[in-house]
Predict the structure.
Amino acid sequence: MPPGTKALLIANCAVFLVQFLSFGRLNGLFAYFALVPSEVIHKFFVWQLVTYMFLHGGILHIVFNMLALWWFGSELEGAWGTDRFVRFYFWVGGLAGLCVILADELFGNPNSATIGASGAIYGILAASAVLWPDRILLFNFLFPLKMKYYVLIIGAISFYNSFNVNSPVSDIAHLSGLLWGFLFVKMPQRGRTSMLASVQQSYKEWKLQRAKKKFQVYMRKQGKGPWVN
């Protein structure tokens, strides 16, 4: 098993074991690591865009995610190398989290919590469908189906379920994971580099504006403001 996939499997399983063996006593602590849109936007809990991927809601939840990571992630890492695969995993999972935040702020409940690696996992499935579209897999372990059709089916199911406001599954994370996974594979290297550079620049500008606001507040308290630069 490639080292990146192995490390992700170990990390996810270790966190789940701590969750499971704590029998709910650590739920208050783990709540800080689930993805809650209102906390990311208003409290700047930006680490949740990464940490939510390592939390799972039950045995079946983590089993299916980790099986997909093992089967398809190992192959992607073998084709791409560890560095590119790990960067892909976290970028797709993080961007899927951003889509969840946007959707919940606009149409859903910004105080709802999202957990699970499904956004990144669906990105891996989309990448596998682009690179090996005619590979045969067993749908539900029974029916032989080409990879491209399998991804289209699970995408259609997620799209249909996204209209169910009472669904306990974050279908927005699934759909956005598929979209970002597809785009990262199809987009030329130059385009990917430009997009990542744009995200990094936007983050730097956000940090600068936040620092300016803090400085202005401090100077007003000292009776020396306001300054706007």
Notes: Residues 225-229 have pLDDT under 50 and may be disordered.
